[in-house]
Amino acid sequence: MSAAVATPRGRSTGAPGARSVRRGRRALGGLAVLGALVLAVAGCTPTTAPEPGAAPTIEVAGDFGIRPTITIPDGFTVGETSTATLVTGDGPVLVDGQSVLADYLAENVTTGEVVADTYEGLPEIRTFSVDDLGQPLYDLLEGATIGSRLLRVELGTDADPNPHVLVLDLLPLRAQGEPLEPLPAMPTVTLADDGAPTVAIPDAAPPVSVASTVLIKGAGPQVTLGQSVVLQLVAVRWSDGAVADSTWGVAPRAVALADLPTGLLAGLVEQTVGSQVLVVVPPADGNGQDTLVYVADILATGDVAVGPSGTEGQPGGDPTAGATDAPTG
Fold it and tell me: Which of the two residues, 318 and 109, has the higher pLDDT score?
């Protein structure tokens, strides 16, 4: 049987007889659509038998975290569903029940139609479980490490004779970049092995205006007004050091910048993806009640709307916490 093969971190060869799949729009159904597609494939038989001879290859070009370019040779046939690891990440292995932050592109092999695409918006926040992902996608991710790029090529079926190709990036769940020295007199931050921060409040009066310092400088794109972001964050009250809000141990949070308190917004705009930023927000620029110390890891940014309760696959802020909600009055 012929099987699809990908070129890790390679380039499209541009050889005669090959076509590059076009850039497409973000699909509304997300991983739910992919899960349904994969499940439909899993229980069906291919509509055509594989042809003998040397198999042409699907090539995937582009760096991890950047929208890939998929090149499919003319006459390419899929003889069996196959998977491959194109880039092996140096992060931890996924464990059951943990959060997954994934960017992915899925294409119809025959027509080049985009089935799903998150790279033009925000990555999806999911849980590594069979219930959330479905068995085939769970199997694809099982044993994978954060920072990996994975490939799945799926058979056509009697109901849908066209095969599909999926490229998926497992994105970091914590800040990644260059550690920097914090500004003096700011709260101190220590990190657990998984990146979760613990904040120590200094024995001093809180600042009367917004103050921020970059603890880790990421190399990703810059956050701009009007966008939405995916964050890992903790918010701690200056008065007693109590945690007012945290995504750690729950899931990263997708939120529109416009829905953040003005002080936190000021601390995040113009920072870069991959960065960890400490922002001290007095009541007037925050929730109206407490001076809050935020430690925010910026995991992604995109020109896409996110509602207060999140979009499909994008958990929003906890409306009871008050730490990431702008005051209404």
Answer: 109
Residue 296's beta-bridge partner residues? 233, 277
Q: Which of 265, 240, 243 is nearest to 326 (CA)?
A: 265
Alpha helices in the chain (DSSP H): 30-42, 130-133, 135-141, 262-268
Of the candidates 205, 110, 200, the one whose C-alpha atom is nearest the C-alpha of residue 162 is 110
Encode burial over 245-284: b for 16+ CB neighbours within 10 A, e otherwise.
bbbbeebbbbbbbebbbebbbbbbbebbbbbbbbbbbbbe
Q: Which of 29-33, 120-124, 209-213, 272-276 is the least confident region? A: 29-33
Tell me the whole-structure pTM to 2 decimals.
0.81
Distances in Å between the alpha carbon of 126 and those of 62, 251, 254, 288, 328?
24, 8, 12, 32, 30
Length of the chain equals 329
Whole-angstrom distance, CA of residue 328 vs CA of residue 17:
59
16: left (phi over 0), alpha (psi -120 to 50) or beta: beta
Pull the structure tokens for residue 9: 């971190």
Class of domain 178-315: alpha beta
Domain 18-170 sits in CATH at: 3.10.50.40
C-alpha distance from residue 277 to each of 94, 142, 171, 240, 321 (Å): 26, 32, 19, 21, 20
Residue 145 is given by DSSP the state B
Tell me how far apart the alpha carbons of residues 317 and 261 are, in angstroms, rounded to a whole number. Answer: 12
Per the CB < 8 A criterion, the answer to whether 50 and 77 are in contact is: yes
Q: What is the pLDDT of residues 6-64, one digit of tens each?
A: 333 222 223 333 333 333 333 334 555 455 444 333 333 333 333 445 556 899 999 99
- Virtual CA dihedral for 285, 288, 290, 296, nearest 10 degrees? -50
The whole-chain average pLDDT of the chain stands at: 82
Q: Tell me the pLDDT tens digit for each residue of 216-265.
A: 999 999 999 999 999 999 999 999 999 999 999 999 999 999 999 999 99
User: What letter would DSSP give residue 28?
Assistant: S
* Domain range list for the chain: 18-170, 178-315
